[in-house]
Amino acid sequence: MGGEVTRLPRSASALVLVLLGACASTPFGQPDLLTFIEDGQTTREQVFLALGEPSATYEDGRILTFRLARDEGGYFLVEKAPGFRSVKYSLVLAFDDAGLLRRHSLVAIKAP
Amino acid sequence: MVARHALGVLRCGALLAATLVLAGCPIPLPARYESSSRENLPAEPLDWVMVGVTTREEVLLKLGEADGEAPDGSWLAYGSVYSKGGVLFVLFAGGGAAGAGGERVEYRRLIISIDDRDVVSAIDTVTRDCWVSMVGMGSSGAQSPPCLKVDSRE
Hints:
Helix content of chain A: 10-25%
Radius of gyration of chain A: 22 Å
Number of strands of chain A: 5
Structural class of chain A: alpha+beta
Number of domains of chain A: 1
Number of helices of chain B: 2
Shape of chain B: elongated
Number of domains of chain B: 1
Largest interface: A-B, 23 and 21 residues
Largest sheet of chain A: 5 strands, antiparallel
Oligomer: heterodimer
Distance between the termini of chain B: 36 Å
Number of helices of chain A: 2
């Protein structure tokens, strides 16, 4: 019969759905990764505890930078490597002598 | 003897390149930034950087992490590598492939010198346009070295 459609058993359909689901990428990003950062409030220690080792330091560690990218989940850290492959943002944190965050900026390294 | 051998290698290379150009499929290479390049270095002069006024902190807050820095902190290097497009000739044969081509690349480098007070003391911008040639066979390949190092003063 030309119009007959072969139906997959329910278990096979479920298997296909699971396999297709596995193809979908899980976001790395965390929506609250940077929400703790506040000028005049955040300390160097808090930054190291939350973000780990910076990608670069300047002026004897008074200024720190971190490499970031972003997906639908939020921002995530990118490991240091030569050049800026996969890096979308550079987070720059400038502290005062007491180790309190004075100014910060999230610089877009790549064009949107 | 060595010169004759070098000439032979050169002839073989030229023959391979000529074969690829004549028999290969041309693939246009679009204009784009190199994947490891930053894209936030404008072509026009940075009017917000003022010698004797702007600090290292302000430069970093505006441009982000530098591509390179002097070991003593006396300069920061920012650079970008932008391909203006080119062409690659690819030849498929016997389950393998070989290719040769070239693209026009613009290297841009900004060196910001910084004094002992962490204030900008000089700004030096260099832009260089050059042809980058590339050859490849199977999984190996090579390309001509960059005509300007963007992460250092060299």
